[in-house]
């Protein structure tokens, strides 16, 4: 039976329509970075994964979990799902570009090796649609009313990332 070893919940701010999960020693903008995830949920190289958002205006909610083996199926409904394998040297970072790191060098219980990474997403298209609706309603983007409406979108876009050591 699988055991969850770690669970973190945090906001992430997509930079250039993405955020990045990578080995803590890797520069996500350096040579060997993945191509942007054009039309896909993820883009992957050996040591890093870029997770695509369809917006870069509001924060998204990220739930990050480390498991000791493949987690059991669960009943929550997610719109998108992707899976990959990353080589991690015992620590992971989640990078948001100019906004900084949501997680920096988080030590993994599984140590060094290949990790299966499963990414789930929901409300990726809902957030940009609702944001465009704010302008269609004729709200002044500098007004308090617009800002209050925009804040209701924070966290609506959600991601779940589950990782575990590949056996």
What would you note in describing this structure?
- The structure is a single chain.
- With 167 residues, the protein is mainly β.
- The protein has one domain (4-123, 157-165): Substrate Binding Domain Of DNAk, Chain A, domain 1 (Sandwich), CATH 2.60.34.
- It contains two helices and eight strands, in the order βββββββααβ.
- Strands 1-5-8-7-6-2-4-3 form an eight-stranded mixed beta sheet, with no helix packed on it.
Main features:
167 residues; eight-stranded mixed beta sheet; mainly beta; Substrate Binding Domain Of DNAk, Chain A, domain 1
* Main CATH class: Mainly Beta
The percent range for helix content is 10-25%
- Secondary-structure-based class equals mainly beta
Major β-sheet profile: 8 strands, mixed
Compute the separation of the termini in Å. Answer: 14 Å
- Which CATH architecture is right? Sandwich
- Assembly state of the chains shown: single chain
Number of helices: 2
Low-confidence stretches: none
What is shown here, in short?
This protein has helices at residues 126-136, 144-151, and strands at 4-12, 18-23, 42-44, 48-52, 60-67, 80-95, 101-122, 158-165.
Task: Write the SSE topology.
Elements: E1 4-12, E2 18-23, E3 42-44, E4 48-52, E5 60-67, E6 80-95, E7 101-122, H1 126-136, H2 144-151, E8 158-165
Parallel strand pairs: 5-8
Antiparallel strand pairs: 1-5, 2-4, 2-6, 3-4, 6-7, 7-8
């Amino acid at each position: 039976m699988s055991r969850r070893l770690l669970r973190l919940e945090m906001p992430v701010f997509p930079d250039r329509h993405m955020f990045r999960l990578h080995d803590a020693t890797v520069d996500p903008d350096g040579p060997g970075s993945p191509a942007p995830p054009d039309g896909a949920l993820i883009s992957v190289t050996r040591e890093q994964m870029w997770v695509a958002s369809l917006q870069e205006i509001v924060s998204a909610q990220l739930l990050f979990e480390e498991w000791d083996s493949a987690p059991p199926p669960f009943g929550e409904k997610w719109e998108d799902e992707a899976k990959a394998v990353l080589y991690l040297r015992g620590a992971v970072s989640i990078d948001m570009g100019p906004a900084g790191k949501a997680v920096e060098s988080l030590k993994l219980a599984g140590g060094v090796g290949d990790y299966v990474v499963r990414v789930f997403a929901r409300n990726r298209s809902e957030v940009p649609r609702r944001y465009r609706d704010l302008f269609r309603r004729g709200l002044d983007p500098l007004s308090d009313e617009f800002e209050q409406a925009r804040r209701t979108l924070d966290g609506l876009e959600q991601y779940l990332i589950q990782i575990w050591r590949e056996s």
